[in-house]
Structure formats: structure tokens, C-alpha cells
Amino acid sequence: MRIIFMGTPDFAAASLKALLDAGKQVVAVVTQPDKPKGRGKQLQPPPVKKLAEEFHLPVLQPTSIRTEEFFRTLQGLRPDCIVVVAYGKILPPEILELPPKGCINVHASLLPYYRGSAPIHWSVINGETETGVTTMFMDQGMDTGDMILKKRLAIGPDDTVGVVHDRLAVLGAELLIETIDLLEKGLAPRTPQDHTLATYAPMLKKEHEVIRWDQSARDIHNHVRGMNPWPGTYTTWEGKVLKIWRTRVPEARPVKAAPGTVLEAASSGILVQTGQGQILITELQLQGNKRMEVEPFLRGKQISPGTVFGREGAEQQ
């Protein structure tokens, strides 16, 4: 079966590698254009391109997938199936209808829950204890197509989005191979989604990074781990951005203090009052400095009890 693979980040690279390791016939790879990164703004290829070049596969990087020229190129490749994994753009109807066996998507949630561009982040931020991956036949809606297979994954109470992402990338790759095997045999099931149960995982914006100290300690903890390692959460302290990377939720104690107030600052962590209970910051990063654990941080900086994080209001911008 002739397969065109469309994907861009590390999550997609895991699925492409699985196809190649399984001996599937990938005739071309479509990925996003190289983008400038780092201080020197050097153009960097996406992970999927790097992998494709290692295997000497043809790579297409169109700036637009809606041109007649690009469609003709895909037509000339005569795909039986197009596999789409975190490509980053919505496919037009003519591409969706091109391969006779359909366009197959690997989505990092248990559909119809968490449709959209950031399902892994939002599942952790919302404190879910379970997520998973779903393969589906793509249609013109956003993650609305008929489902093929699902696999579930537990989320631990301290798992970061990075940890969950890496586990789901492996799970998604395994599920894709199972799906392609069924598709080749003409045995792939089609299960319509219950659209009344749909929830959404919108693209992350700058305002989503801001810690709201009036939330409960548990919600803030979920927020922090749901944005680690990217893009991170932050508050402000003495007019500077203070990124919070790791936290714990200790047993709550009765304290009368405004949310965001530092109660203790010790080598074990910085204890902060929230809207409900307290949270212990164990890893953080002040603007212009490296990410570090609390003990070395406090050796160079003094944070006194009574300090109120976020008071400057920079996070409201």
C-alpha cells in the first residue's frame, strides 16, 4: 500500500519511524517548511524531515497545501492512503478525497474528547487521570471523523505534559501500525463519534501561561505540570517574570493570607497560599537566569515570607 506521510514534530516522527520499521511503503513525506530557531535564527528542519532524510525519502515542504501544483504532485505519487500526524494544517477536501483508502489521522486523545490542537496539554491541565490516542478516517471537520482504533493511557498525579507526550507518541505509533494492517486487509472498523460528547483543546496562547493564585492548589499544580516543558507557567516577582516549573501539593493548613502570598521559603520549597490550600514550589526560573531547584535558587535570591507573587499585574497583559 502506497502511503504519503504528513507530519511535523517529534510526536509525528515516532509514527513515521514505526511505519518504516514495519516495512510499510512510504512514497513521500510532507512536512512544514524549515523555521528559524535559536539566537542565530538559523533555519532548522522539523523532526519529521530529519528522519525522512535519514531514510532517503522524498520530502515536500509546501508553504501552502491548497495550490493546484501541490495537488498535482500528490496525485502523481498515486497514494492508496495518506497518514496525517500533527501536520499543523487543515487538509482541503480535494486532498481528503484523493487516496482510495482514505486519510488516516493519529490524534492524541480519546475522541470525541479533546478535539483540537493541544489535547495533551489540556488533558493534564484539567487534571485528567486518563488519556490515550485515537486513529480515525479524516473528514472536513476538526477531529470529527469516524474512529478506527483507540488505546488508553493513565496519567499520574505528577506527570508533566512532556512525560505524557512521549508515552503517547509511542502508543500512537503502535496504534498506527495496527490501523494500517487492518486497512490493508480491508478490515478497518468505522465507529462514528458521538458529537454531543465532544470537548475541545484549543491552541495555547500567552495568557494560558499565567498562574492564577486564586485557583486551588491542585488546579495550579495541574496547570504547572500541564505546561512543562513547553511553554511553561509564570508569575511575577519584583517586576520580573518568574517561571514555575515544578510544584507539590502539601496537606492544607488553615492560613489567613491573600492568594499568591509566600508563607515559607526553605530548601524544601517555597510555600505559597492559593485560593484553596497551599502549593510548594520546588523548581523555578527567574527572568534572565537558568531553571533551577529551590535550594540553589535561594542561595542567590532572597524571597521573604509575606512576599506576594503576581502583585505587579504583569500577568494581566
Automatic annotation (TrEMBL):
Record domain Formyl transferase C-terminal: where: 204-301
Pfam families: Formyl_trans_C, Formyl_trans_N
Catalytic function, reaction form: L-methionyl-tRNA(fMet) + (6R)-10-formyltetrahydrofolate = N-formyl-L-methionyl-tRNA(fMet) + (6S)-5,6,7,8-tetrahydrofolate + H(+)
Any one GO molecular function term: methionyl-tRNA formyltransferase activity
Organism taxonomic ancestry: Bacteria, Bacillati, Bacillota, Clostridia, Eubacteriales
Family per record: Belongs to the Fmt family.
Formyl transferase N-terminal domain residues: 1-180
Purpose: Attaches a formyl group to the free amino group of methionyl-tRNA(fMet). The formyl group appears to play a dual role in the initiator identity of N-formylmethionyl-tRNA by promoting its recognition by IF2 and preventing the misappropriation of this tRNA by the elongation apparatus.
Gene Ontology annotations for the cellular component aspect, listed alphabetically: cytosol
Gene3D superfamilies assigned to the protein according to its UniProt record, in alphabetical order: 3.40.50.12230
PANTHER family given in the database record: METHIONYL-TRNA FORMYLTRANSFERASE, METHIONYL-TRNA FORMYLTRANSFERASE, MITOCHONDRIAL
Stored InterPro entries: Fmt, Formyl_trans_C, Formyl_transf_N, Formyl_transf_N_sf, Formyl_transferase-like_C_sf, Met-tRNA-FMT_C, Met-tRNA-FMT_N
SUPFAM superfamilies xrefs: FMT C-terminal domain-like (SSF50486), Formyltransferase (SSF53328)
Binding site for (6S)-5,6,7,8-tetrahydrofolate: 109-112
Protein name, per record: Methionyl-tRNA formyltransferase
Alphabetized UniProt keyword annotations: Protein biosynthesis, Transferase
Keyword Transmembrane included in the entry's annotation: no
Gene: fmt
EC number: 2.1.2.9
